[in-house]
Amino acid sequence: MRLKTSLLKEPKHKELVSCVGWTTADELYSCSDDHQIMKWNLLTSETTRVVKLPDDIYPVDLHWFPRTIGVKKQSHAESFVLTSSDGKFHLISKLGRVEKSVEAHCGAVLAGRWNYEGTALVTVGEDGQVKIWSKSGMLRSTLAQQGSPVYSVAWGPDSEKVLYTSGKQLIIKPLQPNAKVLQWKAHDGLILKTDWNSVNDLILSAGEDCKYKVWDSYGRLLYSSQPHEYPITSVAWAVDGELFAVGSFHTLRLCDKTGWSYALEKPNTGSIFNIAWSTDGTQLAGACGNGHVIFAHVVEQHWEWKNFEITLIKRRTMEVHNVINDAVDLLEFRDRVIKASLNYGHLVVSTSLQCYVFSTKNWNTPLIFDLKEGTVSLILQAERHFLLVDGGGLYLYSYEGRLISSPKFPGMRTDILNAQTVSLSNDTLAVKDKADEKVIYIFEALSGKPLGDGKPLTHKTEIVVIALDQKGLTSERKIAFIDKNRDLYITSVKRFGKEQKIVKIGTMVQTLAWNDTSNILCGIQDTHFTVWYYPNTVNVDKDLLPKTLYEKDASEFGKNPQIIHFVGNQITIRRADGSLIHLNMSPYPAILHEYISSSKWEDAVRLCRFVKATATDEDQTMWACLAAMAVANKDMTTAEIAYASIGEIDKVQYINSIKDLPSKESRMAHTLLFSGNTQEAETLLLQTGLVYQAIQVNINLYNWDRALELAVKHKTHVDTVLAYRQKFLEDFGKKETNKRFLQYAEGLEVDWNKIKAKIEMEIAKERERAATSPAVRASVTVQQ
C-alpha cells in the first residue's frame, strides 16, 4: 500500500495553509494566513475562492459540522467552525457567510472540534482552557483550566470524554463532574497533535520530540516510532480506523493502526500542519507550510486468498494475479474503489455507488447492484453470503446480489463497527454492542431476527473481540470472544431458556481466528501460539481439553502480533513491524473434522491409527479429539477405542458400564452424565419415568438431599436412599446429623435383601420396557 500524491505547480494560497476539511468525498475547503478560504473540487480539478476573511482573522483550525448519521438528505456538510488567533471561533456556512463569531479564549483558539452527534463543540486555547459550547455557540461549561497552552483536542468515541494535550502530558477528562481523570506523560517534548478514533478506540499523539505514538484508551503505549528529523506537526486517523497519516517537514507517512509504516513520501510542502481524511477513507489532504494543499490517494492495497493476489493499481482498476498459472486479469470499475474483500471464492468490491461481486472462477462477469446508503465501511464474508455495513445499517446479501436481511437492534451505531466487533457465519450474525460492551447481539442471518429467545448474550466484563465458527450444524454454532482481561471464552450461540454456559479456554489471548473449513480455533496467548483442534471439548469432557491443543513458542512473532487469516492449513500472522509470517498446521485434524461431520467413524479411527503409525507426537492429540467428538455425537464405541488409546482407563470402564445399561433412555442419561450435564441427565430420566435411575444417579454423585427429595416426592425407594446413606456414613465412621434423614430413618429398618430385590425388579421392569425396542443389553450389576 502506498500514497500517490499530487501538488499543483504553483500554490493557490500566498501564505501558509493552516487547516483543511472535506465536505464530500470530492470537495475540500482550505484556510490560510492570507485570509482566503478556498474550495477544491477534485472531479473538475477547479479551485475557487469562497470568501476573503477580514484582515484581523488568522485561521488556526477548521472542522465541518458532522453529517447526521443515516439521513440521506444531508449527504454533505452545511457549515463549519473556524477558530482563529484573535481568541474567537466563527460558525461559517458552506457559502462562506459568517453566521456567528464568539469570543472564546484569551489568545488564539488553537483547536475546535464538533462531537460525533453535532450536539456540542469543544475549543481549546493558548490560555490553557478547555471549553464546551452548544451547537449555536453558547458556553456550556469550562471543562479544564491549566497554565500551559492546549494545542490539540479530540472527542472520545461516545462523545462523553475529551482528550487534550498539556505540555508533554495527555489528559482524558469525562464530561461528568467527579469522574476519574486519566493523565499520563506521553512524549519527551511538547505534544502538538492528537486524534482519537471512534471505531478502534485508539489514540494518536505527535510531538516536538519528533515521534508519533499509538495508545489505547487506558493510556497504554502500543507503538512508538523512531525519532524523525523534524517535529511531527500533524496526525490523523482514517474514518474506519485501519490507517492513519503522519505529517512533518517535507514528510507524509501512511501507517497501519498498529503503528508500522506502509509508505513514506517526501513532497516539497514545508511542514504539513493539518491532515484531513475524506469521508470514504480513500484519500487525504494536507495543509502545507508553503501555501500548497497536498492531496494523496491510497493505492496498491493488497488482498490474498489461496492462489489469488489482488492489487488496487489505480483508483478504479484492480489487477488479479493467479499465482498457479501466472494469469493476470484487470478489473475496471466505473467509480473509485472504496472497500474490498476476498474470501470463500468471491471478491466483493464496493465503489462509491455500486457493489460488485466476482467469482474467482470467472472474472469477466461480475454481478453489480446499486448501494442504498452512503459509503460502505466494512465488508464481511461467509461461505454463503456477505455483509455490508454503512452509516445506515447492516445489510446481508447473497452472492447472487439478493438482499437477504437487514438486522437491527436498539441504539445501533453502525459507523463504529469493525471486523473485531462483528462476526458472520452461514447462519448467524453476531454484533458487539457499543453502548453496553458486555453484550453481544446474535441474529439469524436469513431472517435478521434475534436468535433463540431474543435475549442477547451477556458477559460479566467488557468484550473486546468476537468470532463465530464457520462450519457444522446451526444448533452447534459456537462463538469465541476475548474480554478486556484478555481471557478467551467460548459458548454456544443457541440456547433455549436455560442459563448460558460460558467456558474459559485461554488466558492472556492477544488475537484469535477460526479456520474457514473446519471448526478449529487458533490464537496467540501470552508466549504461546495455540491451536484448539476441537474447542467443543469443554462441553464434553473438560479434563481432555489440554490434550486437544497444539502449542508452539510464539517469541518469533515479537510483541503484539495479529492473526490475519486461517485458511486451509495455513495461518498468516502479521508482526508488529508489519512483516507477514506464514505457519503451516498439520492437515490431520481438519481431515478428522471432515470424517466426523459425515459420520465416518471407522475412517476416523483408521486416520488416528495411521497418524500413530507415522510416529508423530500428535497421535495423542488426535485420539483425544476423536474421543471428545465421539462423546459429543453419542458414539460410545468409538469413544471407548479413543479413550483406551490415550490411557484414560477410568473413562473406558465407565463407557463399558453405560453399554450394559438396560434401556436406551438410561444410556442416554449416563452419556449426558459423562459430559458433566447432571441436571439434563436427571430431567431425561424423570421425563421417561425412570425414577429409580434418577435416584441412583444422585446417590452415585453423593447428592443425598436431592436423592431423598426425589424418593419422597415419588413415594418410592426411600429405604434405598437411606440404606446407601447409612453405608456411606459407616464407611467414613461418621454419625447422621442431617435432620431430614434422621426424620425418615426413624423406625425404618434397612434390609439390604429387600432393597436388592427391589432394584433387580426395577431393572427387570426397565428391561421389559426396552424389550419392545430391539436394543436389549446384558444383566446389570448392582452396587453393594
Rg computed from alpha carbons, rounded to a whole number of angstroms: 33 Å
Please estimate the helix content: 10-25%
How many E strands? Answer: 55
Q: How would you state the average pLDDT, rounded?
A: 89
Gross morphology: elongated
| Neighbour order of strands in the largest sheet | 1-28-27-26
- Report on the biggest sheet: 4 strands, antiparallel
User: What structural class is derived from the secondary structure elements?
Assistant: alpha+beta
Report on this model:
By secondary structure, the chain is of the alpha+beta class. It contains 13 helices and 55 strands. The longest helix is centred in the last third of the chain and has 20 residues. The protein is elongated. Its main location: cytoplasm.
Brief sketch in words of this structure:
By secondary structure, this protein is of the alpha+beta class. 18% of the residues lie in helices and 39% in strands.
Which key phrases capture this entry?
784 residues; alpha+beta; four-stranded antiparallel beta sheet; disordered C terminus
Provide the fold topology.
Layout: E1 2-6, E2 17-24, E3 27-32, E4 36-41, E5 46-52, E6 59-64, E7 79-84, E8 88-93, E9 98-103, E10 109-114, E11 120-125, E12 129-134, E13 139-145, E14 153-155, E15 161-166, E16 169-174, E17 182-185, E18 191-196, E19 203-207, E20 212-215, E21 221-224, E22 234-237, E23 243-248, E24 251-256, E25 261-265, E26 272-277, E27 283-288, E28 293-299, E29 302-305, E30 308-314, E31 317-322, E32 327-332, E33 337-343, E34 346-351, E35 354-359, E36 362-370, E37 376-381, E38 385-390, E39 393-398, E40 403-405, E41 422-424, E42 428-432, E43 439-444, E44 457-458, E45 463-468, E46 478-483, E47 488-492, E48 503-506, E49 509-514, E50 521-525, E51 528-532, H1 537-540, E52 549-553, E53 562-567, E54 570-574, E55 580-584, H2 588-597, H3 601-613, H4 619-632, H5 636-645, H6 649-659, H7 664-674, H8 678-687, H9 691-700, H10 704-713, H11 718-732, H12 739-745, H13 752-771
Antiparallel strand pairs: 1-28, 2-3, 3-4, 4-5, 6-7, 7-8, 8-9, 10-11, 11-12, 12-13, 14-15, 15-16, 16-17, 18-19, 19-20, 20-21, 22-23, 23-24, 24-25, 26-27, 27-28, 29-30, 30-31, 31-32, 33-34, 34-35, 35-36, 37-38, 38-39, 39-40, 41-42, 42-43, 43-44, 45-46, 46-47, 47-48, 49-50, 50-51, 51-52, 53-54, ...
